[in-house]
C-alpha cells in the first residue's frame, strides 16, 4: 500500500483513550502525528477522551496489579467503557504488562486495544499501527482486484471457508496453544475470526477441533467457526441447515524453506512474485511445490513449500495455485514490501506464510499470554482436562473481531 493511498473501508473511532505505563513518550506529539496519519488514510479518528499516565508508585507493583490500578483510573476518568484503548508500554519486547493488559481488555471488558512502544516512531510506524487498529475495529484496509471482481479460482464461485491452523509449543512444562482462524463474510477472503485452546504440552495433534458433548451438540473450535461463518454469510450458507451436507475439503500444509533460494540467471535477481516451482526439485509423486509470493532484496526471501495432502475438489492444478496465491497475499497490515524487508522483522515471516496461517500464529501467541499470565499469578482457570489452565473465552464484544492483528 502506498503511503498516500486511503483505506478501502476506514472506520470511525470515538470515545477512546491513551494509557501510558511509565514509558518515556511525548504524548502530545504522538497524538498529533497519529491524528494526521489517520486523516491521510481516511480513518475518522477523533481526539482521545483522556490520557492516563501511570504514577511511579504504581509502577513498583506486579504487572497484574498495575493493570488493575490502571483500569480503576480508566473507570474513574471515562463516562462509560471506551471503544478503544491505545496502550504505551515501556519495553518493546517481553513486557510483563502485555499479557495481563490484553486479558483485561479482551476477556474481562471486551475493549479493542493496541499496544505500542515509543521507539523509532515515524509516519511509516504510525501507518502500520493504524492498519492494525482499523482491522481490529472492523474496517477493511485493502482488497485484491480479483477479490473485487470475485474471480479467485474455486473461492469466489462457491461458498468457501478458509481455515488456518497452528499448534504452538512454548516449553515442556508449559501448555501448548492450538489456534484456528477462519475466513468470514464470503466472498471476501480478508476477514478472519480466531479460536484458540490450550492443550497438553508437546502433543502434535490439535485436541479441540471437535468436542462432542452429546449426539446433538459439539463444542469444538470448528463448530464455533462454522456458526460464525453461517451468521456472517447467511444467504450463501443456507446449505448448512440441510440434513445432508457434504462439504469438499482440501488439506494443505506449508513449511518454511529457509535454505532454498530461487534466482534468475541474468541478471542476478530473485524470481518475480507469483513464481511457482513444481518440477525437478519437487517430489516425483507427492503433490507439492514451492511458492515465491513476495519481492525483496536478493536472497532475503524465505520461500514457502506447499504440500497438498487431501483434495476433494475437481480442479486443475493451475486454478488451485492461483487461488492459493490470492490467499497468500491478503495480510491486512504493513504498507511496503521492499522497505519493510529492511526495517521490520515480522515481514520476513509474512514472506513465507499464507495469511490465515500467519493470523493463526498471531492468535496463538497472544492467547498463550493469557495462560502464561495466569500461571505467573497462580490463578486457577477453567478445566483443561490435563491439569493446566484453559484459555478464557473472549468477551462477546471482541470475539468476532480481528483482535490478533
From TrEMBL:
PROSITE patterns found in the cross-reference section: PIWI (PS50822)
One of the record's GO cellular component terms: nucleus
Entry superkingdom: Eukaryota
Annotated SMART domains: Piwi
Domain Piwi: 84-183
InterPro entries, per database record: Piwi (IPR003165), RNaseH-like_sf (IPR012337), RNaseH_sf (IPR036397)
Listed GO biological process terms: regulatory ncRNA-mediated gene silencing
Pfam families, per the entry: Piwi (PF02171)
Molecular function in Gene Ontology: RNA binding; RNA endonuclease activity
Name under which the protein is recorded: Piwi domain, ribonuclease H-like superfamily
Lineage of producing organism: Eukaryota, Viridiplantae, Streptophyta, Embryophyta, Tracheophyta
Amino acid at each position: 500500500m502506498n503511503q498516500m493511498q486511503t483505506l478501502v473501508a476506514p472506520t470511525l473511532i470515538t470515545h477512546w483513550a491513551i494509557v501510558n505505563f511509565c514509558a518515556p513518550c511525548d504524548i502530545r506529539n504522538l497524538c498529533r502525528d497519529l491524528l494526521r496519519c489517520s486523516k491521510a488514510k481516511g480513518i475518522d479518528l477523533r481526539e482521545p477522551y483522556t490520557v492516563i499516565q501511570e504514577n511511579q508508585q504504581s509502577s513498583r507493583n506486579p504487572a497484574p496489579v498495575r493493570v488493575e490500578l490502571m483500569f480503576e483510573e480508566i473507570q474513574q476518568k471515562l463516562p462509560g467503557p471506551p471503544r478503544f484503548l491505545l496502550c504505551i508500554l515501556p519495553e518493546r519486547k517481553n513486557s510483563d504488562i502485555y499479557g495481563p493488559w490484553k486479558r483485561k481488555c479482551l476477556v474481562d471488558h471486551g475493549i479493542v486495544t493496541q499496544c505500542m512502544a515509543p521507539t523509532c516512531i515515524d509516519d511509516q510506524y504510525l501507518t502500520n499501527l493504524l492498519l492494525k487498529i482499523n482491522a481490529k475495529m472492523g474496517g477493511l484496509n485493502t482488497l485484491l482486484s480479483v477479490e473485487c471482481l470475485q474471480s479467485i479460482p474455486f473461492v469466489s464461485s462457491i461458498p468457501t471457508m478458509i481455515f488456518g491452523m497452528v499448534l504452538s509449543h512454548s516449553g515442556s512444562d508449559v501448555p501448548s496453544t492450538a489456534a484456528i482462524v477462519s475466513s468470514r463474510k464470503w466472498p471476501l477472503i480478508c476477514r478472519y475470526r480466531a479460536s484458540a485452546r490450550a492443550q497438553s504440552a508437546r502433543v502434535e495433534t490439535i485436541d479441540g477441533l471437535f468436542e462432542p458433548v452429546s449426539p446433538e451438540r459439539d463444542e469444538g473450535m470448528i463448530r464455533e467457526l462454522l456458526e460464525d461463518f453461517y451468521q456472517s454469510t447467511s444467504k450463501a450458507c443456507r446449505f448448512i441447515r440441510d440434513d445432508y451436507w457434504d462439504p469438499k475439503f482440501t488439506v494443505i500444509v506449508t513449511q518454511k524453506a529457509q535454505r532454498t533460494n530461487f534466482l534468475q540467471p541474468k541478471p542476478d535477481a530473485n524470481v518475480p512474485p507469483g513464481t511457482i516451482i513444481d518440477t525437478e526439485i519437487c517430489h516425483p509423486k507427492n503433490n507439492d511445490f514451492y511458492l515465491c509470493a513476495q519481492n525483496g532484496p536478493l536472497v532475503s526471501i524465505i520461500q514457502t513449500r506447499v504440500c497438498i495432502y487431501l483434495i476433494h475438489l475437481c480442479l486443475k492444478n493451475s486454478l488451485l495455485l492461483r487461488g492459493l496465491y490470492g490467499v497468500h497475499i491478503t495480510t491486512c497490515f504493513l504498507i511496503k514490501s521492499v522497505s519493510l524487508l529492511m526495517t521490520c522483522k515480522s515481514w520476513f515471516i509474512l514472506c513465507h506464510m499464507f495469511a490465515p496461517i500467519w493470523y493463526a500464529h498471531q492468535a496463538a501467541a497472544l492467547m498463550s499470554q493469557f495462560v502464561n499470565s495466569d500461571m505467573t499469578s497462580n490463578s486457577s482457570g477453567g478445566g483443561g482436562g490435563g491439569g493446566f489452565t484453559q484459555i478464557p473465552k473472549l468477551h462477546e464484544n471482541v470475539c468476532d473481531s480481528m483482535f490478533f492483528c
